[in-house]
C-alpha cells in the first residue's frame, strides 16, 4: 500500500477544550461539523476538508494509500476511513452546488486525499478554532468560512467554466427536489441519457447522486432537533426511515441517531438565510431561463434528441 505522510511545521497549536457534543452549521452549499474526535468509514458525494485542532495529526485510509496530517482534503466519492479518535477536529463538507466543489476534483485520485501545509492556512485554523469553541457563529461564521475555503481551493487547478445546461439542471433540482430526470432533461433540451452523461462529465458526479445529495442536505437541517427520524426522512424526501438511515450511514459513517438527538449535536441556526432565496441570488445570469439555456445548447451543438 502506498503511503503518503505529511507533517506540517506550524507554530504551537493552542490547547483545545473538550467539546461535550458535536457542533454543526449549515451553509446552504456545505456543512460545518465540529467534534472532540471521530472514527468513521464513509463515501461522501461532497468534497471534504478536515482540520485537526491541538497539533495532533489524523489518518485517512483509502484503498489507494494512507495520508496523515493536520489539514486533509478528500476528493468527492472517495471511499475512506478517518481515524481521529480523541483528536478535536472541524470538518467541512462542500456540497456539489458549492462554487468551489469542482476545484477539489484536482486532488490527486491516488490516493484521493491530500495533506496541505497548515502553515499556509492559518486563517482556516483560526476560523475552525473559533467555530469549535462557539466564538464564531451566524452570518459572520458563514462569511469567514467561505473566504477560508476559497484559500484552500486555490491549492488546486481551477476547473473549466461549467456548462450552462448543467447549472440549469442543478437549479431545477435545488428549487424542486421532486423534479424527475425526464423533466430536468427536457428543460435543457436533451434526452435523459444525454443529460446524465453531460452532468457526470462536468460534475464528476452522477445526476441521480446529485438528487440524493439534495435529500441529505434537507435532512441535515434537522440535526440536533430531536425530531423522530421517520419524520425527518419524509421531510427530506426519502421513501422511509430505513432508506434514510442507510444513505446517511454510508455518507457520514454513523447512523442518524449519532447526529440527530439534541443531546448529540448543537446546531448553530443563527441568521440562517432562506435557502431558496439564497440559491436564486447566487445562480448565474440566464440560469432559470429555459429559452436562454436552449440557445446555449444550440451554440454548443447539442440540440434535443
Automatic annotation (TrEMBL):
Pfam families: HTH_18 (PF12833). Keywords: DNA-binding, Transcription, Transcription regulation. It comes from the Bacteria. PROSITE patterns: HTH_ARAC_FAMILY_2. Residues 164-262 form the HTH araC/xylS-type domain. The keyword DNA-binding applies. SMART domains: HTH_ARAC. InterPro entries: AraC_XylS_family_regulators, Homeodomain-like_sf, HTH_AraC. This is HTH araC/xylS-type domain-containing protein. It comes from Ideonella azotifigens. The lineage of its organism: Bacteria, Pseudomonadati, Pseudomonadota, Betaproteobacteria, Burkholderiales.
Amino acid at each position: 500500500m502506498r503511503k503518503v505522510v505529511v507533517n506540517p511545521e506550524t507554530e504551537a497549536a493552542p490547547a483545545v477544550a473538550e467539546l461535550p457534543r458535536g457542533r454543526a452549521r449549515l451553509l446552504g452549499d456545505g456543512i460545518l461539523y465540529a467534534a472532540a474526535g471521530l472514527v468513521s468509514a464513509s463515501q461522501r458525494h461532497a468534497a471534504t476538508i478536515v482540520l485537526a485542532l491541538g497539533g495532533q495529526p489524523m489518518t485517512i485510509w483509502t484503498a489507494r494509500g494512507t495520508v496523515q496530517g493536520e489539514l486533509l482534503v478528500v476528493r468527492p466519492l472517495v471511499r475512506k476511513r478517518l481515524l481521529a479518535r480523541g483528536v478535536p477536529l472541524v470538518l467541512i463538507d462542500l456540497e456539489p452546488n458549492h462554487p468551489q466543489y469542482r476545484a477539489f476534483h484536482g486532488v490527486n485520485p491516488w490516493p484521493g486525499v491530500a495533506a496541505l501545509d497548515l502553515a499556509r492556512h492559518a486563517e482556516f485554523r483560526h476560523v475552525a478554532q473559533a467555530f469549535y469553541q462557539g466564538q464564531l457563529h451566524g452570518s459572520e461564521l458563514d462569511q469567514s468560512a467561505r473566504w477560508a475555503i476559497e484559500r484552500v481551493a486555490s491549492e488546486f487547478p481551477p476547473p473549466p467554466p461549467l456548462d450552462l445546461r448543467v447549472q440549469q439542471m442543478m437549479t431545477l433540482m435545488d428549487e424542486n427536489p421532486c423534479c424527475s430526470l425526464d423533466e430536468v432533461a427536457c428543460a435543457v433540451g436533451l434526452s435523459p441519457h444525454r443529460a446524465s452523461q453531460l452532468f457526470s462529465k462536468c460534475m464528476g458526479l452522477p445526476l441521480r447522486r446529485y438528487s440524493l445529495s439534495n435529500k441529505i442536505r434537507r435532512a441535515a437541517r434537522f440535526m440536533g432537533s430531536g425530531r423522530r427520524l421517520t419524520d425527518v426522512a419524509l421531510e427530506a424526501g426519502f421513501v422511509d426511515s430505513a432508506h434514510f438511515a442507510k444513505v446517511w450511514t454510508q455518507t457520514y459513517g454513523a447512523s442518524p441517531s449519532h447526529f440527530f438527538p439534541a443531546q448529540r449535536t448543537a446546531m448553530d441556526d443563527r441568521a440562517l438565510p432562506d435557502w431558496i432565496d439564497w440559491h436564486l441570488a447566487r445562480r448565474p445570469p440566464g440560469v432559470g431561463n429555459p429559452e436562454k439555456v436552449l440557445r446555449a445548447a444550440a451554440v454548443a451543438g447539442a440540440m434535443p434528441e
